[in-house]
Design brief:
With 224 residues, the protein is α/β, with parallel strands linked by helices. It folds into two domains: 41-104, Roll (Ubiquitin-like (UB roll)); 107-223, 3-Layer(aba) Sandwich (Rossmann fold). The protein has five helices and twelve strands. The protein is elongated, with a radius of gyration of 32 Å. The protein starts with a helix and ends with a strand.
Length: 224
């Protein structure tokens, strides 16, 4: 049995209509998906408003980009430029948000010849408005040597808050001046042990007048 020509035309038109409708719907859904996947929100937590604004401005070019194609290394490259940052975590919240949680470094000292602060991460930070009571570092600053020295302090009974001045010498040796104006001359090695020994001397009742504790020579102690 043969279909009439009119009926054939109707079937063909119906099929074409379905194809057009499905293509249009597919494009609409794809466009909608792309629109919803575009970044329209970036949250930064953990920093002051000033520092947040600086980072936010640098991340401005991420807006309206598809979150699926954002490489975290793009964000990391910007964040790593800021010495104030110690740790951070970047998380994509689909469909359109990036969350950045930041842990700022702690200020532990300041340079004697500038307004720069030294972070616990060993990096220098510009902060002219900071009024924290921090020990001054005299001598040429070296990040690696400072981090090693910091680890020795953390391994001792002292904290940075006990020191008024830190002296760094070209020979890679450190001296420290406490807030009680006691100068401790340290050896190049076994610094944590030497600091603990100095701490014990300072807190001893046997020696009342202690302005200088010299521990530079092995098995020798000079107290003045």
């Amino acid at each position: 049995m043969h279909l009439s020509i009119d009926k054939k035309h109707k079937i063909i038109i119906y099929i074409l209509f379905l194809l057009i409708l499905s293509t249009t719907s597919g494009k609409f859904l794809e466009n909608k998906k792309n629109y919803l996947s575009k970044i329209n929100n970036i949250n930064i937590e953990g920093l002051s408003n000033i520092d947040k604004k600086k980072i936010f401005n640098e991340l401005d070019n991420l807006f309206n980009k598809n979150i699926l194609f954002i490489n975290k290394k793009e964000v990391q490259k910007i964040i790593n430029k800021y010495n104030i940052i110690d740790e951070y975590n970047i998380k994509k919240i689909y469909p359109s948000t990036i969350n950045i949680k930041i842990k700022p470094t702690k200020f532990v000292a300041r340079l004697s010849n500038s307004d720069q602060l030294v972070g616990a991460n060993g990096k220098l930070i510009d902060d002219e408005d900071n009024n924290d009571m921090l020990p001054y570092i005299f001598g040429e600053f070296n990040s690696n040597n400072f981090l090693k020295f910091q680890n020795n302090i953390l391994g001792s009974k002292f904290t940075f808050s006990k020191f008024k001045v830190l002296f760094f010498f070209p020979s890679n040796r450190w001296d420290v001046l406490t807030y009680d104006d006691i100068l401790i001359k340290l050896p190049q090695d076994n610094i944590s042990e030497s600091l603990n020994f100095a701490y014990k001397i300072i807190n001893s009742n046997d020696l009342k007048y202690k302005n200088l504790i010299d521990l530079r020579i092995d098995n020798h102690l000079i107290i003045k």
